[in-house]
Amino acid sequence: MAVLFGSRSVEHEVSIVSAIQAMDAMDPRRYEPIPVFITKEGRWVTGRDLRRVDAYNDLPSLLDRCRPVFLRPEPYGNRLFMEESGPLGSRRIRSTVLDAVFPIIHGTFGEDGTIQGLLELANVPYVGSGVVGSAVGMDKVVMKAAFRAHGLPTVEYRWFTRRRWREARDEVLAIVEGELRAPLFVKPANLGSSVGITKATDRASLAEALDVAAHYDRRLLVEESFEGATEINCSVLGNDNPVASVCEEPVRWTEILSYEDKYLRGGKAKGATGSEGMASADRRIPAPISPELTAEVQRLAIEAFIAIDAAGVARVDFLVDTASGRVCVNEINTLPGSLSFYLWEPSGVPFPALIDRLLELAFERHRERQQTTFTYDSALLQKLGRGTKTS
């Protein structure tokens, strides 16, 4: 099984931690994980030391000990190709047959449907959401539109292109001030781990927040703040008949749950070789909310999962007013940090069992895809060869 991680993403380091955690949790009697590290420049390499988090402290030395690998976008044999040194400085290519691919890439070029497209072309079973679910789950603008079309509650929002913001700043500011109530949150449409997110309380801070978001994406999301709300998260596991985990309440250290809050606070993650990840964050599990509110969050989490055609494991984040019971779906993460194992362990699914289930779901989804007809033989080319006109 090739485990893909790293890549050209602001969540590059988080991906490394999540992948090492997952490989450490794999039963060596059942799985042979092949670590495939994608550098920030986009190089694919493999090597035994990639499973040690401390090895990344000297990245040049680590890469010197690795071999280049690649996956061809052709549906022939599920092969991972490796480049090796031959005699007299020559290079040779050998291949390893894969049973499955486990992409653990957070953010762009991994969680957004791009790597899933390559795996679809190669016709190899892989863990997690497909092209559509991954792309919709990554793009907050499309995601919220899908949620609303599915009848899920969301906060009020507007979105703009980076070009429109830069060419018509006053017009954009006027629209936001006229249609949304401050305070507001401004976000890049495609990003994660709270990078590029800013809270705005007036016109000056709104303009500054839009400038920040414009550095990270071409589409910018502005949404109303759900003042006084508590963040509650719930994980979902499955394909067509998903189930929900227990709920959690992340502990905020700042008004926005920052990158550092998510990954650098708290204790060590179980099973990780010197790595922490999402399991290191301070959180209350189960969330201190009523059984009725817990059931509603779990129901909406499953509906959000279905709304974007997610698969495998995801985490759905909510804003909840515990006094009134009002709940809004904030976003879905189709490849959550640490694979949300810290939510499944208290739900009765240990991390190794979660890995097993994710592989089962990957093979199930792959078998389902094989039932689809992708080609159709027609006489079109023969007709064209005889000079028949087509409209």
Please, could you describe this protein's structure?
The protein has helices spanning 12-25, 59-64, 114-122, 131-138, 140-149, 162-167, 169-179, 203-214, 259-263, 291-307, 341-344, 351-369, 380-385; strands at 2-6, 34-38, 44-46, 67-71, 79-85, 91-97, 101-103, 157-161, 184-188, 198-200, 219-224, 230-238, 243-250, 283-284, 312-320, 327-333. Strand 2 and strand 3 form a beta hairpin. The chain is α+β, with helices and mostly antiparallel strands. It starts with a strand and ends in a 6-residue tail after the last helix. Residues 262-274 have low confidence and may be disordered.
CATH topology of the largest domain: D-amino Acid Aminotransferase, Chain A, domain 1
Looking across the biggest beta sheet, what order are the strands in? 6-5-4-3-2-1-7
CATH class placement of the largest domain? Alpha Beta
Corresponding CATH superfamily of the largest domain: ATP-grasp fold, B domain
Give me the count of strands: 16
Give the biggest beta sheet. 7 strands, mixed
Oligomeric state of the chains present here: single chain
Number of helices: 13
* Mean pLDDT reading: 90
Report low-confidence residues grouped into runs of 5 or more.
Answer: 262-274
Structural class: alpha+beta
| CA-atom Rg in angstroms | 23 Å
Q: Tell me roughly what share of residues is in helical segments.
A: 25-40%
- In percent terms, what proportion of residues is strand? 15-25%
Principal-axis shape equals: globular
Number of domains: 3
List SSEs in N-to-C order.
Answer: EHEEHEEEEHHHEHHEEHEEEHEHEEHHH
